[in-house]
Amino acid sequence: MKRWGVVFFVLLLIQNQGILKPVEAEDGFVKTRGLQLVLNGIPYYANGFNAYWLMYVATDPSQRGKISSAFQEATKHGLSIARTWAFSDGGYRPLQSSPGSYNEQTFQGLDFAISEAKKHGIKLILSLVNNYDNFGGRKQYVDWARSQGQSITSEDDFYTNSVVKDFYRNHIKTVLTRTNSLTGVAYKDEPTIMAWELMNEPRCTSDPSGKTIQAWITEMASYLKSIDGNHLLEVGLEGFYGASKQQTNPNYYQVGTDFIANNQIPGIDFATVHSYPDQWLSGSSYEDQVSFLNNWVNDHIQDAQNILKKPILFAEFGRSLKESGYTTNQRDRVFTTVYSAIYSSARGGGAAVGGLFWQLLAEGMDSFQDGYGIVLSESSSTVSLISEESQRLIKIRKMYARLRNIEKWKRAREIRRAQWWSGNKVNDTGN
Q1: Would you state the pLDDT for residue 22?
Q2: Domain ranges of the chain
């Protein structure tokens, strides 16, 4: 009886949200519809992971087995979204060695990562630049501009200097119009790519009002969408609020972003949040960190649902085991807190659509271990939690798929009935 009550509630919810409408073209691109992501007409809830290293490792053909192995393990555990870097600016194994100059071997590494994701049914979120100087990032862009005679005072000029913005726009265009050397499909036409991300964790501390980043997002979102109308776009935000709600931020952080305002910009299709209470509240007790995390996750779900009216993805979360005293049980509680909130929202038709833990590693990648890394082939309680969350979200997707099939069957029956009545009327009149 309880099960049928839930099904009735979901049917009612679907009808109220207009989900049982004419079906979209089944082109394999993830879209948005109200609070939901949608894939081929069916609400899309998915568990996932971060693996920033995919392109970097795949640049060396002898190491590409690590990408294949990671994807194979991911699919075994029900994971179907991966977030990774589509940037490497200057330095070792660069994608962009200098403004507008691209390394074909590195691009082929990204080609391979995309083609392997396609083989394994994994959707990708590709980030286009870093806030930090790892893999170049904002610092490399402003250094390039400075070397060309631009008057640059800080890395925050990344958001305002016209030459730097031209460099970044060119990177957007180059990546989006790239034709994959293995599949022959342009990135902007590739359904395996779920979304683009403007920047990994943008910050502009020189302007805590948020106006600088707001203007930059508005400009770059418009430019990217002018090239690619197929894919979703998100900012890459950690989720920090502006002055109006700064008390929600850890230690009252203000870093020049605003979760509400930034995600209301036209062209931004869904919201993202990162969650690192072990870093943000490093001086607090573990219990205080978990309490903060619980409020942080639920506040953002509610704001996405009630204010933004857009889907929300928890694009990074985890707990390091590198620090002395940190245990697997503590990490599990962090995962459970995030996963429980996502599932609770998803099963009720709310705004949360999934979570991506930081980070997935393949076997033999000890040098990439930052304390957060998880190797799925190594059995652990955390791996079990990941699999359980995947299966719970898959069940929700299957439920919607069944309901959609029922609706399609009803439509077909109504059409046949209408045709039958039409034919009988003709016969009754003798025409």
Answers
A1: 42
A2: 30-414
pTM, entire model: 0.90
pLDDT per residue as tens digits for the range 216-237: 999 999 999 999 999 999 999 9
Give the H/E segment covering residue 101.
Answer: strand 101-102
351 within 8 A of 304, measured Cβ to Cβ: yes
**Residue 164 token pair:** 């730097």
Q: Which residues have a Cβ under 8 Å from the Cβ of 146 and sit 6 or more positions away?
A: 152
Residue 397: CB atoms within 10 A of its CB come to: 17
Q: Looking at the annotation, which residues are catalytic? A: 201, 316
On the CB side of 75, CA atoms within 13 Å amount to 13
Q: Which of these ranges, 113-117, 263-267, 365-369, 411-415, has the smallest mean pLDDT?
A: 411-415
Predicted local distance difference test score (pLDDT) of residue 26: 72
Tally DSSP H helices, then E strands, for the chain.
12, 13
Pairing of the two strands 271-275 and 232-234: unpaired
Model pLDDT, residue 225 = 98
Please count the CA atoms within 13 angstroms of the CA of 36 that sit on its side-chain side: 22
Dig out the tokens for 265 from the structure.
């910009």
| CATH architecture assigned to 30-414 | Alpha-Beta Barrel (3.20)
Structure tokens belonging to residue 349? 């038709």
